[in-house]
Amino acid sequence: MTFVGQTAESATIGVTRSGAIMYAPRIDNTSTPPQNVVQGPEFVVRSRNRGAMWTALSSGGPTTGGLVPPWMDVDPQTSRVWFLTTLPTLCGARISWSDDGGGHWHTNAKVGCPGQGGEKVLEGPAPRGGARPHGYAHVVYYCANGGLDTGPTTLACYKSLDGGRTFHPTGGIPDPPGKAGACGVNHVARPGVAGPDGNLYFSLNLCGNLGTAISRDEGVTWQRRLIARTSIRDVYTSSVATDSSGNVYVAWLAGKGPSSGGNGGSGLPYLVISHDHGRTWSKPLMIAAPGVKSALHEAIAATGTGHIAISYLGSNHGANFSGYITESSNALARRPVFWSAPVNNPARPLISGTRPQTFGDRLFLITDTFGPDGIPWAAFHCAYESACPNERVGVVGRLAAP
């Protein structure tokens, strides 16, 4: 585990083909809490020595802070770095990208108004019969909640065929037909991934049950399916992954919601797999580390065939949480083997389960990824605990062989 520096509501990580570790956001702000985690400026930072030292990058465009967590990602095929920040008006986003590991950046200054909140940039090949990109290998998508994050809303998605320079609405929405929030779920669909077949796979909260929305035509039309009748707190932008063979993985937290006033515990992380492009799904499998009794947040990544990693905040007593990574190199086997470890010493936890999650000073999302050597990396926070007294700092960890 290594500390990155002062951070905000999200913890995102990526690894380039050269092995450089990218983390965002680092907040270089000298104000006192909570202003220092709201105002920015926000940077992508890079380490070329496995986290021993971090360098702030220009990140493209202005680095003014916003009220919605930024998103950062590195595409494993192209190694392009994406950095997405909400505009000060909360209407649309600024999308920046770098093709040289953060040395130089290009910026699209305004994309996707009225999209706001729950944001993500994703990319993948064009599906069979889909419009072909030009100037860049992949079709690029930007998706976000289609309105202010204060009530029921649907997901708005935009598509770029020129590597992010211009975006246009995809024409369809992944949310099921009907009134948003009809069953008390404000945000039904969350952005997911583009598979190697070019299909889009998004997660759905179907009135507390787990579902998926699939588009095979670049977001014009969507098919929606129930995956499992279960109890879910939420689905996240990091809940879905695909491997190089097209297998689809969905991870979520099953169980009760958080306790009043704090992080609480939201059950345990579970996994389902589809071998046929989302048409059918396996039985849910609980994949938490032995001894973990409750969890917060989750993220999943995949590489190769059947090689996956799930990161989450886990606790063996529900009061304090450590950053865990669970990995399997044979997730498709009849009896898969999972290896797990916390990145920090559980005696010095990262997050308190009782600390109130106030706006601007909460943990909104985490992500994980694989390096080119097959090692899984994950991003977390340490907030006001003994390991990081009086501050909120970014944490980067990796799961290493014994």
Name the features.
402 residues, mainly beta, 5-stranded mixed sheet, 5-stranded antiparallel sheet, 30 strands, 42% strand
What does this structure look like?
The structure is a single chain. The chain has a five-stranded mixed sheet, with no helix packed on it. Strands 22, 23, 24, 25 and 26 form a five-stranded antiparallel sheet that branches. The protein is built from no helices and 30 strands. The radius of gyration is 19 Å and the shape is globular. Strand 16 and strand 17 form a beta hairpin. It has 402 residues and is mostly beta strands. The two termini are 15 Å apart.
Quick synopsis:
This protein is mainly beta. Helices cover 0% and strands 42% of the residues.
Secondary structure: elements and pairs:
Blueprint: E1 2-6, E2 10-15, E3 21-27, E4 42-47, E5 55-56, E6 71-74, E7 81-86, E8 93-98, E9 106-111, E10 120-124, E11 139-145, E12 155-160, E13 168-169, E14 189-194, E15 200-206, E16 209-215, E17 223-228, E18 240-242, E19 248-254, E20 268-274, E21 285-286, E22 294-303, E23 307-315, E24 320-328, E25 339-342, E26 351-352, E27 365-366, E28 368-370, E29 376-383, E30 392-398
Parallel strand pairs: 2-27
Antiparallel strand pairs: 1-30, 2-3, 3-4, 4-5, 6-7, 7-8, 8-9, 10-11, 11-12, 12-13, 14-15, 15-16, 16-17, 18-19, 19-20, 20-21, 22-23, 23-24, 24-25, 24-26, 28-29, 29-30
Rg, alpha carbons: 19 Å
Q: Mean of the pLDDT scores?
A: 89
pLDDT under 50 segments (min length 5)?
257-265
Classify the secondary structure makeup into a structural class.
mainly beta
The major pleated sheet works out as: 5 strands, mixed
Distance between the termini: 15 Å
Question: Total strand count, please?
Answer: 30
Tally of helical runs: 0
List the quaternary state of the chains.
Answer: single chain
Assign a percent range to the helix content. under 10%
